[in-house]
Structure formats: structure tokens, C-alpha cells
Design goal:
This protein is mostly beta strands. The protein is built from eight helices and 31 strands. The strands form five sheets. A six-stranded antiparallel barrel has the order 1-4-5-8-7-6. Helix 5 packs antiparallel against helix 6 and helix 6 packs antiparallel against helix 7. This is Peptidase S55 domain-containing protein.
């Protein structure tokens, strides 16, 4: 392999769901799955053939706290009821959907007008026939400009298929045919609603513990998610304060799927359609439809935010109660159990204007780099409590188990500085190293622990390369970037770098440094001297360093995990300047000379000098004069 790329982790689609699924259901589940009909939370499925237009149903969901007239309603954990009327069925080879007009709870107002409509997070809410049999779960809504009380219901048969691992064919979008639209219109569905496609209700993606951050920080958090390929979270939709409490998962109650929990909680929240023994069926549609790990949790609904077509549930995550098993087209499944899946821990110790120690548990291995970067950034932002200039020293230890079972810890540190927002800069190194180790391409590794220690100050001492001089003809001469000088082969190339304050906010002290780089006597042709400050930025698209997007195209070949670790460890400190001389000898061999200068702060800027090697003329041999006798 000639090149390696640190994989971009940090952080799936806009405001869709967050979690993935993945642990395979045990064979006993496939052959001896819990049988529907064993309990009220796992009733028999209602026969589709018995559905007739006008059939009345009841449903269960949680809507938090809200006011109806002078009455305060509250259903944070215990489900409340809504009602519905069957309209029609959208028939599709990938699985039918039942269409219902729903009323009650926060779906409609008492006069029947739309309140929050079919909100995000209602997905999975069970719908029952009068005899108590499960008709299906509310999982889809019509795309339109305003809220709707028309819902697409995933049939109970498809939900229960998940108990035996029977997967429907892929289908993320169901479009009514012309005849079906006419039938819907006849049933009373407004024409504007029948023109669109049913959309899968997204479960709100929550990033708990960050709601106090500013709008500028929100932009940064969205950028982190985008660069990691993760869903953009709803920052104020939940909290971390309830995670020590256990909330049982019941049909019609909340079920959450978590990438991480603890200080940084990343989770999606929906509703449980059925609980069959220890197996939970939820959502009625996929979460992200991708295999991975995760935990399932109960949750408490705070309230429903009524916002037309994007109304959503705000809920607080509770303690983990089991393992996510599958993320399928017909819904998610999880097992309630005392033994939780293996997880990595991310601990960040911050010293600065405001100090803190935070810890997160990450059961989804695909999210470790994202959480490590996100938590490091969040804690730095909370420490400085402003989007302002500053500097930071960050060190990290990444502990992982290798393919042969041995446990190893990789440690590194870096210095960062910013004239605008120091918190923006600190995630790069640790997140990039986690991603690079995890996706090394040579052997499977399991990251078990990430420890970050960062010290921040609001003082910015950034420096910039201002002038480069070369010793030519017995004096120092300023050389413009790309300028040329002539050097005798075998002599020293002497260059002097001058640093100045990087902008008006810097309190750095100007300094100079002379580099002396020896050339071989056999040097010929042309060479080059490069002087570079090693500072870079999160926002510098030229470097693309965050979460492993730095490419080693021109670096050494990487042939093993050990070689990758060596390369990561050799990354130059940002508070340094490097001088590199490269050329070729008359024997056709390349040569290189390097020099390094540690500086008080991050240094930016670079310059180069082209070298023409002048071979010294050969000395003429003196002729021997014969002495006369």
C-alpha cells in the first residue's frame, strides 16, 4: 500500500436518525422467538383482511406536558391515548402501509384542527383494534408545507416479522399510485396531501449536554457532524441529567438508541410498538439501516415541539437497559438485559478558566472518534466560555486491543492556537488518531479507552513567518519565496527565518533562527530549501486534518499498523518551524537535510529557496620539473 488516509468519522443525513444497529439475534430468537399474543404489550396482529374504511382504532404514545384549556396533561413515561380512523392501504411489493386519520394527544386540537400533527418521535406508537389486537405502528407522514394528521402505519405483521429475522425488500419511500390517490381523495384526504410521497418519520437526533452553547458553536457542532458523516443533532432536545435513572420500556412508551451516553449523549428517540418478553420492537421504520453497535434506553418525554411538518419530541435519555439488535426497514429491535454491550470510554480532563472532568460511554465503535473530538471541543468551549483567541496544550492516550489480543496504548500531544476561537482547534489530533488507528487497514483493533488532557488559556501568542534570508557572498540577503541562490557543493546552506506576531491579537514575541544545512560534495543540479511553520487549522481545507482526512501521499510507505503509529507519532509540533534541504548527487541518489526549531507558540507560513549547486573546479596537478644534473 503506497498511501494511507485517516478516515473521516466525524459523525449520516441531515436531521434523520443517528444510531445504527448490529449485534445478530441469537439462533434461539430466530427459532423460538417470543410469540405475539403472550401479553398486552405483545398482542396478536390484527388481520389485514379485516380492515375496512371507517374502522376505528386507538393508539398509545407519550406527549410530555402540555395544556388543554385550563387542564395540564402530562405523559412523560406512561403512554396516553389517541384515536384514529382507517382510510385506505397503499399496496407495495416492498410492504403495504395502512393510512389512518388520527386525532387526540398532541396530534390535533380539541376542535379537530392540526396541533403538532404527526411529529418526529411518534414513530412506533402502536395502533390497536377494538379487540386489543395490534394493527401496526405510526411510522410515516405525508410530505407537505403544514402539519398533518394523516399517518402511514406499518402493519403489525411486518413488525412481528422482525422477531424471526424476515427482512422486507429495501424501500425508503412509498409513493401512492394515481388510483390510490383518487381513493384517498374519496376518503377525504386533501388533494395537496395525496400528491406527495409518504416520508419516513425521523427520530429526533439528540446531542445532550450542549444546549448552552452559542449560535457560533452550533455551526461548529454541525461542521463536526458533517465532516464525520454523522447526523446533525438537535442540540436542545434532551439532557444528560436523567441517565442514572431507569425508565422501563413499554408499548407506547419511549425507546431510545444511543451511540454514546454519559457526558456526551448521542441518541435518537422513538416509540416502542411492542415488547415481547425481552425483545423490544420500535420505530416501524429503519433508524439508519446500517449494522453497528449501540444500547437501548428508556426515556422521558418533556414536550412535543409543534412546528408544522417538522414537529418533534423533546425527550431526556434514561439509563441503558439493553442492547440494540437490529436496524431493519420495518423497525428496530433490542433486547432488554442486564449485560450491556462492550463499550469504549472517553474521558476529558480540562484545565483552564473553567476546569472540568467529563466521561462518556461509547457502545457504538463507529462513533468513538466523533465523540472524542466532540467532547474535547465541547469541554474547551465551556472552559473558555467564549469564541475568542487562545492557546491549548492537548495530550491524549488511546488504548486498544490488537488482533493478537495484546493491549497497547498510543500517546501523543500537540499545541494549538487560534486568533478567533481556540476551542475550534483542539479536536483535530485526538479524533484523527482514533480514526486512523481504528481504520488502519492492516489488522482489526478494538479501541477501549480514550483519555484526553487539555490545558487552555485565553492568551494568543501566534507567530508567522515574515522573512527568510540566506548567507550569500559573506552577507545576509533577503530571498523572496521561490527565489534562487547558488551554493558550492560540499558547503553549508545557511538560512535565517524571522518570525513576527500573527495579527493584532497576538502577544507573541518576534524571534529569529538560523539553520545550517550541510550539502554533500557530490551534490549536482538543483535542490530546494523549504522553511515551514507547522501550524494548521481546523478550518484550513488545504490540510483537511480533522478526523483523518490528512493524506500521506508524499510521505513514507505504510505497510503495517506499527508503521502507521510511528508516522502519527512523528507529526511535527505546531509550535515549531522546520527547515528541509533536498537535492540529488552525481550518483543519482537523493539526499535530504533537516532542521527543527521549537517556538513559544503556533507558527504559520512557509517559504522556499531554489538552490543551484556549483561543483568546485578540479585542481590542476602541478607538473614535476626535472632537476638538471
Amino acid at each position: 500500500m503506497t498511501t494511507r488516509r485517516k478516515r473521516a468519522l466525524l459523525g449520516a443525513g441531515a436531521t434523520l436518525t443517528l444510531l445504527t444497529a448490529g449485534l445478530a439475534i441469537a439462533s434461539t430468537t430466530a427459532t423460538g422467538a417470543p410469540a405475539p399474543g403472550a401479553s398486552a404489550d405483545c398482542p396478536l396482529p390484527f388481520p389485514e383482511a379485516s380492515l375496512t374504511p371507517g374502522l376505528e382504532v386507538t393508539g398509545k404514545t407519550t406527549a410530555g406536558t402540555y395544556k388543554r384549556g385550563a387542564t395540564i396533561h402530562s405523559s412523560p413515561q406512561t403512554p396516553e391515548s389517541f384515536t384514529g380512523t382507517y382510510l385506505s392501504t397503499i399496496e407495495d411489493a416492498t410492504g403495504d402501509l395502512f393510512l389512518f386519520e388520527l386525532e387526540g394527544s398532541r396530534i390535533t386540537n380539541p376542535d379537530g384542527s392540526v396541533d403538532a400533527g404527526i411529529w418526529q418521535g411518534i414513530s412506533g406508537s402502536p395502533v390497536y383494534a377494538a379487540n386489543g389486537q395490534l394493527v401496526g405502528s405510526v411510522s410515516y407522514a405525508f410530505t407537505q408545507a403544514t402539519g398533518s394528521k394523516i399517518a402511514g402505519v406499518t402493519p403489525a405483521a411486518r413488525l412481528y416479522d422482525l422477531l424471526g429475522e424476515t427482512d422486507p425488500a429495501p424501500a425508503m419511500r412509498v409513493v401512492p399510485s394515481r388510483a390510490e390517490r383518487a381513493e384517498l381523495a374519496e376518503a377525504g384526504v386533501p388533494a395537496a396531501q395525496t400528491q406527495g410521497a409518504l416520508r419516513r418519520l425521523s427520530s429526533p437526533v439528540v446531542l445532550a449536554g450542549t444546549s448552552g452553547l452559542t449560535a457560533q458553536s452550533t455551526k461548529m457542532l454541525q461542521t463536526l457532524a458533517k465532516r464525520a458523516g454523522r447526523p446533525v443533532p438537535q442540540l436542545a432536545a434532551g439532557s444528560t441529567g436523567n441517565q442514572a435513572n431507569t425508565v422501563p420500556i413499554v408499548a407506547g412508551g419511549n425507546v431510545a438508541v444511543a451511540d454514546s451516553y454519559g457526558s456526551v449523549a448521542l441518541y435518537s428517540v422513538g416509540t416502542a410498538a411492542a415488547v415481547c418478553d425481552d425483545i423490544v420492537i420500535g420505530y416501524g421504520h429503519p433508524n439508519v439501516w446500517s449494522p453497528a453497535g449501540g444500547t437501548i434506553h428508556g426515556a422521558s418525554t418533556a414536550m412535543i415541539m409543534a412546528d408544522g411538518p417538522v414537529s418533534f419530541k423533546m425527550a431526556n435519555l434514561a439509563a441503558p437497559v439493553g442492547t440494540l439488535l437490529h436496524d431493519r426497514l420495518s423497525g428496530i429491535t433490542g433486547r432488554v438485559q442486564s449485560t450491556l454491550p462492550a463499550a469504549a470510554t472517553v474521558k476529558v480532563t480540562t484545565t483552564g478558566p473553567k476546569s472540568s472532568v467529563t466521561e462518556s460511554v461509547v457502545p457504538n465503535a463507529e462513533a468513538i472518534a466523533y465523540v472524542a473530538g466532540l467532547q474535547t471541543y465541547r469541554d474547551a468551549a465551556m472552559s473558555t466560555d467564549e469564541a475568542g483567541p487562545g492557546a491549548a496544550d492537548v495530550a491524549w492516550d488511546i488504548t486498544f486491543q490488537r488482533a493478537n489480543g495484546t493491549v497497547q496504548t498510543f500517546s501523543r500531544s500537540q499545541h494549538y492556537a487560534s486568533a478567533s476561537s481556540i476551542a475550534d482547534e483542539v479536536p483535530n489530533g485526538v479524533a484523527g488518531d482514533v480514526a486512523a488507528i481504528q481504520d488502519n487497514g492492516f489488522e482489526d483493533v478494538t479501541i477501549t479507552d480514550v483519555q484526553v488532557r487539555q490545558t487552555l488559556t485565553r492568551s494568543y501568542k501566534g507567530l508567522a513567518l515574515n522573512r527568510v534570508e540566506a548567507w550569500v557572498g559573506g552577507k545576509w540577503t533577503t530571498i523572496k519565496d521561490g527565489g534562487r541562490i547558488t551554493v558550492k557543493s560540499g558547503s553549508n546552506v545557511k538560512v535565517r527565518a524571522s518570525l513576527v506576531k500573527d495579527g493584532r491579537r497576538s502577544t507573541g514575541v518576534p524571534a529569529t533562527k538560523t539553520f545550517t544545512l550541510a550539502t554533500p560534495k557530490s551534490a549536482i543540479g538543483r535542490g530546494i530549501v523549504s522553511i515551514s511553520g507547522n501550524g494548521s487549522s481546523f478550518w484550513d481545507e488545504e490540510f483537511l486534518m480533522l478526523f483523518g482526512e490528512e493524506e500521506f501521499e508524499d510521505g513514507p510507505q505504510i505497510t503495517s499498523l506499527n508503521a502507521l503509529l510511528k508516522l502519527l507519532a512523528a507529526e511535527a509540533p505546531q509550535n515549531s518551524v522546520s527547515a528541509n534541504l533536498a537535492g540529488i548527487t552525481k550518483y543519482g541518489k537523493e539526499f535530504a537535510r533537516t532542521g527543527s526549531w521549537s517556538t513559544p507558540s503556533v507558527v504559520s507560513g512557509s517559504s522556499s529557496i531554489q538552490i543551484k549547486f556549483q561543483t568546485p573546479p578540479k585542481k590542476k596537478k602541478k607538473k614535476k620539473v626535472k632537476k638538471k644534473r
